[in-house]
Amino acid sequence: MLIVVPSETVETERRVALVPEAVKKLSKIGLSLKIESGAGLKTGYSDQEYVTAGAEIEQDRNLLLAKADIVLRVQKPAIEDIDLMKTGCIQISYLDPYNEPALVDKLAEKSITAISMEMIPRTTRAQKMDALSSQANLAGYVMVIVAAHKLDRILPMMMTPAGTLSPAKVFVIGAGVAGLQAIATAKRLGAKVEAFDTRPVVAEQVQSLGAKFVEIDLGETGQTEGGYAQELTAEQLELQRQGMKSVISQADIVITTAQLFGRPAPKIVTQDMVAAMKPGGVIVDMAVDSGGNVDGSVPDQTVDVGGVSIVGMSNLPAEVCKDASQMYASNLVNLVSEFYDQQANSFALNLDDDILNGCVITTGGAIVNESILSLRNQES
Predict the structure, then answer these.
(1) Burial class of residue 239 (count of CB atoms within 10 Å of its CB; 0-12, 13-18, 19+)
(2) Is residue 228 among the annotated active site residues?
(3) 134 classed as catalytic
(4) Which of 147, 210, 275, 373 is packed most tightly, with the most Cβ within 10 A?
């Protein structure tokens, strides 16, 4: 089977689907690989490094896609790329299938087997393939580093002959993978950290990192089977905002990580809460690309509101593209290796498998993912 890696075309995307080390691993199990010339340059990998690892370099993108048995990418493919791919090809990348109906329909129309990296189930067996978690870890780190760079003071307490500087106060909203990493990073930098999550079950994890868990009584809340926070009612969101406002008013940095899979992010930091922050404060909105948690956040811009900087970065992992590519490539290698049948030289597409059942969106000319089909039925 031939695996190909085209260059990413999204302007803000600096990651590459496979790093040279990943090419070596896939070559060892009998797979052929072709990389589009220059695909790894933004990440710091030359064409020659891929050749040394066992891949061939292809200059012609159209020819590359036309020959592929499996296409590995970071971002979702453009419609025109799908037209170039052969029937029965396997496409593996982020797809945003809940919000891209035209793309999903096109993949089905072309009889392409589309695997969405966002839809890898959060199970023990699938953990090594879970790209959302691997990239969220890095996003949590980056948010704190970006905020620390933007803040007009240092994070740790410092005692000097000239006097004592108190530690900066950091408030993290959402204690999922990204939030927990943000907490850990801020603590390592010496900040005083508080955190809130709608799931009381994560309080122990927050406290184990040395942060204070802010308790706000929202009534009945919980999490989905996949570990995501359940959507709050309008009344619960208002209680959450009221409870957080006093904490935000004392914070130097606010990190928001609240996202609802497949749906717009909840708006949890309102204009009056931003206005309550001290001038010089920084807010980083991780969810800016899915609607944003913060009133006034704009994708890929820093907005000044009354002296408070609201940072909206739509592709946080790409800021540390070397490590992000290494981790994403590892997720892909684990996925492909798990289902590649060496004897048959084919990808074993068994939809009874719990992992494939969750992440395969289209195959054989049809949409087969139950979640996507259920959404379509609700909308019709």
Answers:
(1) middle
(2) yes
(3) no
(4) 147
* E strand intervals along the chain: 2-5, 32-36, 56-58, 70-72, 90-93, 113-116, 158-160, 163-165, 169-173, 192-196, 212-213, 253-256, 282-285, 301-305, 308-312, 340-341, 346-347, 360-363, 366-367
pLDDT tens readout for residues 133-185? 999 999 999 999 999 999 999 999 999 999 999 999 999 999 999 999 999 99
Per-residue pLDDT at 71 exceeds 90? yes
pLDDT at 228 over 70: no
Given the residues 47, 69, 81, 130, select the one marked as catalytic.
130
Give catalytic status of residue 94 as yes or no: no
Catalytic pick among 98, 228, 249, 250? 228
Residue ranges of domains in the chain: 2-119+322-367, 139-314
For residue 240, what pLDDT is reported? 77
The answer to whether residue 133 is catalytic is yes
Look up the pTM and report it. Answer: 0.92
130 in active site: yes
**139-314 — its CATH code?**
3.40.50.720
Same fold, 2-119+322-367 and 139-314: yes
